[in-house]
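2024-03-11 09:14:02 INFO queue: dequeued item Collagen-like protein, len=171
2024-03-11 09:14:02 INFO validating residues
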Amino acid sequence: MEGDNGVTGPVGATGATGATGPTGPPVQAPTNEYLLVSTFLNQSIAANAPVRFEIENFQNGTAVTRNPLNDTIINLEGGRTYLITYTFTPVTMTAGFAISIEIDGVPLPYTTVAKSTSSNSFSLTMSATTIFTASPSGGSVRLVNTATSIITINSVPPRQSGASMSIVALT
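2024-03-11 09:14:37 INFO prediction written
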């Protein structure tokens, strides 16, 4: 037969400190590399044609650069993650339209802004934002009319651009 447990005794002395663990991965500082382009041109953009960005508002670093030979293409360094935001102001219209970000000629999922055909005339500024990682070889970005009809951009210089695109390298 066993008796009841006795009172717990005092805590013993603290043992020796263990070895230091391995150093963690380095923290990656923000890259501070970006590009902002815009257009003040009144453009008629054909179906499947890109928007022209004739103005380079701000540019820093080498991760995001404008193609010097083509004002519809923006080049990206490979393997990096980017934040892309665009705005677009079509003229007052009743026809349907759609505009999307394309990477190397392929529409980037979830970046299309569209309006269906209606009898109501309106004018507004639309925008979309996405985060994605470029392929290891890099790529080119365009803002493209993915509708089947012509879209006309409405610019009101010097206050309102018809379209703008901001690309920031996050890594």
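2024-03-11 09:14:37 INFO annotate: Residues 33-169 form a domain with the Jelly Rolls fold (CATH 2.60.120.40).
2024-03-11 09:14:38 INFO item closed
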